[in-house]
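User: quick one, fold this
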Amino acid sequence: MRWITTWPHRRRSAVLLLLAFWAGGLVSARIDGLALMDVPYGRMLADGVPLPVEGTQTDIIIPDGADTGHVLGFATEGAYPPFNFVDATGALRGIEIDIIHAVCADLLVRCEIRAVAWDALLPGLARGEHEAVAASIRLPEGDTVSGPVRYTQPYLSHAIAFAARKDSNVPAAGTAAPPVGVVADTRPAAWLAAHRPDMQMRPYPSARALYAGLITGEVTLIVDDAVRLDRWLNDASGSCCRMTGGPHFDDMALGRGVGFVVAAENEALAASLDAALSRLRAAGRIDEITDRYLPFPLAPGEDS
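Assistant:
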């Protein structure tokens, strides 16, 4: 594979210069531009909740029959459950970690996953400290190249879902009376406008305010990012409520999803990752992985 032998040795000073002006926009590239709720992810962590661990966490992947002459380096944040996190034992876990394992096995390549600080992901990519980033970074619309980076096809989609109080009479999302609570100026709000223009939206400034509105009865139904809702409903603070509709998908309203990020000039690696993701998705492996962490699929191509 050409990218294995050529890319690690290239100098990227021009990329570093571009990165200094561009990297600030990465902060808003998360799912919906908002961090998930600050609660333990109880569904997966029977062995404990994620703990902040100082220093670099590393996961070495050596598939049977792998080419051991080169180590393909991935970087993740390790602090964004259920997608990537460090568990109580200090091990890297999460949907994206498992997807990386599956990709490396498909490509028969020895891989290393390192957890680094969020603001060091792209600078490290430019300096050649790792070759790909998997950190729930939203794919842009249109071109696969943006500034100094190149994006692969999505490995996960964005989804929204509805929730109501358990003691309410709201049977399903489509039969509830308005208003519907939603965080203002977000992808879920865009989905509502596109798919349920008959529903009156009641905007909230944050997810915490939105969920408080449901708890207190200010609204009888809310819509939000499906993963964030699932995390909240599995926390003690969300025991009042239940998911009533979803997940729903729509690339136009919710975006293309999240994918790997590589350096713009590393087209060959992006092509190899794309090919592996296509094979894994066709074989149902992405669904198998998300099923370990979530009660609904997030593989690209799901129906809305």
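User: anything notable?
Assistant: The domain at 2-156+257-291 is CATH 3.40.190.10 (D-Maltodextrin-Binding Protein; domain 2).
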